[in-house]
Amino acid sequence: MALITERVELARDGANPKVIRRMASGWAVMGDVQFLPGYCLLLPDPVVPSLNDLDAEARVTYLLDMARLGDAVLQVTGALRMNYEILGNSEPELHCHLFPRYATEPEEKRRMPAWFYDWKAAAPYVEDTHGYMRKQIAAVLEATK
Fold this sequence. Notes:
Layout: H1 3-12, E1 19-22, E2 26-30, E3 40-44, H2 56-77, E4 81-85, E5 96-101, H3 107-110, H4 127-143
Antiparallel strand pairs: 1-2, 2-3, 3-5, 4-5
Helix pairs in contact: 2-4
């Protein structure tokens, strides 16, 4: 089973501990690693191969949810800006990475895509450490729906 499909099924079953909340287009979830605090993803439900596989209404819903999630992360983290990335090259199912970017990042990292960070050395998402942020993002999304 593909990774995005697996994560969506876990979210549907209430078994994905990284779920921020259900959104109109799918699931907002925290990233597996938190080298940039607040890194999260938007997973569509139902899962589709790409943005181009959604009809016009579903595209609008997904992209609006993406922006709403980004707004919430910005509000909670105080980040300088958000980077949104929909790639699908290694996981060929639609998902958007949302990376908060901070003025405090090292200059050589801040100017580059988040993929230049060492993902293997990054702190993994741990509920005891990062759960407060997941809950705050969820509360902002709930208050602004």
